[in-house]
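REQUEST ID: PR-0412
SUBMITTED BY: lab tech R.K.
PRIORITY: routine
TASK: structure prediction, single protein chain
INPUT:
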Amino acid sequence: MQDIGFDVISDLNLSVDDSFNWENKATSLYCLVVGNVSSDLRTVVQTLAHLGRLYQGVFYVPGPLEYEGTDDIQSRTDQLSNVVNSIPNVRMLYRHVLIIDGVAVIGVNGWNHVGNTLTLENLMEAAARHDDITYLHKSIGKLQKHLDVKKVIVMTSGVPSEELYFGEAPEIVEDQIPLCAVLGSDTEHKVTHWVFGTYDKTADTYLNNINFVNNPYIKGSPYWAKRLTLSV
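STATUS: complete
OUTPUT:
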């Protein structure tokens, strides 16, 4: 058995004028960045490059903030992927899986604030949400039979369950299939952690023996990594 550590960072919500310094704050070899870094691409790149100098591996999924103002989700995803994957020690895991020492990390956006009105933006995000759910369902199912994978971490910018709003869920969430419905494909119970964003309060709780964690940055308050330790 060996222990593998991951630092969790979510919802930095940085503007072009914000500074972000993570020097001497890393507690693990790896870092999970769960969306909503910034709407400004240059700020996203600078922040991830900074983290890439401090960690052996930084694994990132974009949140809705990174798509703000775009009218083409796929084009923006491709743009983010091309730029982010060129940064040393940083990888974008939007609809991708990475395996480290028996732990699979799988990531999507999740788009959990899709509106009900028939606007082009809502239709695009609803389609992307459906594709994300389909990807998670199929990929988690495939990982059940992967002999090298002992445990799975799921990363979504979206909140995976209404319960994780702790009584504060927006009405829009009530009509949506929860992201955690994909756990029906986790037949071997390999999913041990689900890291999420797009919620402005810290959460660290268990539902059905899975540890659901987020770590939002609140400006003006001290901010530290939330560390996950997995024994494999």
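NOTES: The chain has three helices and eleven strands.
REVIEWED BY: pending
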